């Protein structure tokens, strides 16, 4: 679906995803948490990871801030850089999913088109993509402001900040929507795991 590097050939292996999934006793998938900064995406992802690992499932958190310490450290927050940040994260997640791992991605990913592009990447490989919209009103996220980012954005210290300078485009058909101002973290995590069970990702 996307442009490929020139003069390259895809090399298929002798072991397929179904064999890796059989080894792990689960299906590979990406669980994509999206929402405003301060909505609780990473907090819920951490709780989901703890629940799944406690049940003997192999999963890995792909946190947007963490990736900006390495893989995505050369990207800023302009719309173009945000799109590339989401694309790279999506590529990492679908590789993990193809390996049979449950990837738990948490990043603002404010633009619908970028998230739809990641979903299409997963569809291309047949890797399940489950979008979790962590929905809170802007005023709630700004009141929390755990990293002090809204304060800096309001003071003009951070440009291109989602919710202040750039819009956040809410998902139109997320698989799960959770209002973290109304639902406790552990309850939200159980909702996500229940969705994974309903889809046959975990038994």
What does this structure look like?
- This protein has 203 residues and is of the alpha/beta class.
- The chain has a single domain (17-198), classed as Rossmann fold, CATH 3.40.50.300.
- The protein contains eight helices and five strands; from the N terminus they run H-E-H-E-H-H-E-H-E-H-H-E-H.
- The protein has helices at residues 17-24, 41-54, 64-67, 79-98, 112-125, 138-144, 149-154, 185-198, and strands at residues 29-34, 59-63, 102-106, 129-134, 176-178.
- The protein has a five-stranded parallel sheet with strand order 2-3-1-4-5, sandwiched between helices.
- Helix 4 packs parallel to helix 5 (112-125).
- The two termini are 32 Å apart.
- The model has no long low-confidence stretch (mean pLDDT 93).
